[in-house]
Amino acid sequence: MLHRRKSSEEREKEYEFAPDNSTTPLYGSYESAHVLPREVINEKAVNPNIAYRLVADEMLHDGNPRYNLATFVQTYMEPEATQIMMDAVATNAIDKAEYPQTTEVEKRCVNIIANLWNAPTDEEYMGTSTVGSSEACMLGGMAMKFRWRKRAEALGIDINAKKPNLVVSSGFQVVWEKFCVYWDVELREVPMKSLDELYLDPKDAVAACDEYTIGIVPIMGITYTGTFDDIVALDKELEEYNKTAKISVPIHVDAASGGLYLPFVNPELPWDFRLKNVVSISTSGHKFGLVYPGLGWVMWRDKEYLPEELLFKVAYLGAFEPTFQINFSRPGSQIWAQYYNFVRWGKEGYKAVHEKSRDVGIFLAKGLEKLGIFKILNNGENIPIVCWMLKEDPARAWTEYDLSDRLRYYGWQLPAYPLPKNLENVTIMRVLARADQSMEQISLLLKDIKDSIEYLNEHITVKKEVKKSEDHVAGYTHNEKRLLKK
Ligand SMILES: *Cc1c(COP(=O)(O)O)cnc(C)c1O
């Protein structure tokens, strides 16, 4: 178990003198007296109980997911749901011959979601599960690119004269930047105009389109702030544009968070396949679908929008189900968990959980507003994201980053981060009122925020030089390239 390389004799000797047996206390074991491997694998095997404990102890250094206030991703599931996931963890969702019932359950989920998104009955929707919204967005983007190319060629547009482009607001999640880099598409960013207009301007979006535009991506729940793009207005604007355009432009809705929230909480709001130009939609099953990380969904309103050459029929696993995924092998667990949630809660249960989250979010926003020092940018009414910034005050020496640091003292992980392009000098903080956050927890948070403010007012009295760097970001940002370094 040493990370420092030792000769095998040395090692033998140590084991000779310190043999672990079934009565050795875990924390009296040889392994517990040495650091775990960092660069080379250990020579010898280790008792599973010891290995488990020592490896599991490493996790203590991660944050507690339940305290992670900024994430959209599910951090709690019922024991029965966890059990379902463990029951399916050894299955491989891609292996449709060996696990036909996983395939069947995936299809049921696709049907359920397509219906939640009001897929028209006179068209033939198609859909698939993915690892998350990122894979789902990539697939939506690829379908738009391939379809554009085919139509452009048919219309006699020189497809090599320029790169195809994708129109999205500057509030895009990093996946759209990745999509454009990986698939060689120009990212046409429409800036969000001001703090009071944190959404895609439909007129600006359509004005950015030309013959090389593969699609426009509005966001149902901007990752930064939770605000919604006005897709009804965009659809209308695009309808006019498409009347005279040489090549029509479709809409893909990035509904990573709103996709499995709105159908339960605000089913009247049309943002989905009820709008004519919306051809595809993606969402994260692990956000408001309430499944643990590792699940997304993407749908097309009709097979016309999913070019056939993107579908693969893999024969060697014994079935001929067509697939359209970037990923191949992964467990069926998340699909089963999504299906469990649908069965377990139904519309009523999802509504109850989501409305509770919304109430908790609104309560938090009101509590923060009362403190008098914050400007609330999103009060949780759309999706339950509460997002705020400090009001200007020359007398105050501390920043949102200091508040974030101080809240760590209580265990809370509540990052501060800059807004995107055009508004990058604005620092905000964000809390996602999630399924597993109760009024009690958020009341405690409010109290800790109040105490932190008092502490900071008392202890930080001299302004620091604000260093503008990547490291300045206490949590993470959403469209910034980052690599894990050693
Ligand atoms: C979270 C998010 C994504 C990425 O989703 P993953 O499921 O984490 O891959 C993409 N777009 C938006 C708007 C998001 O909020």
From TrEMBL:
A Pfam family that the UniProt record links to this protein: Pyridoxal_deC
Cited InterPro entries = Glutamate_decarboxylase, PyrdxlP-dep_de-COase, PyrdxlP-dep_Trfase, PyrdxlP-dep_Trfase_major
Superkingdom of source: Bacteria
Cofactor field? pyridoxal 5'-phosphate
Q: Where is this region: Disordered?
A: 1-20
Per the record, the similarity remark reads:
Belongs to the group II decarboxylase family.
Q: What is this protein called?
A: Glutamate decarboxylase
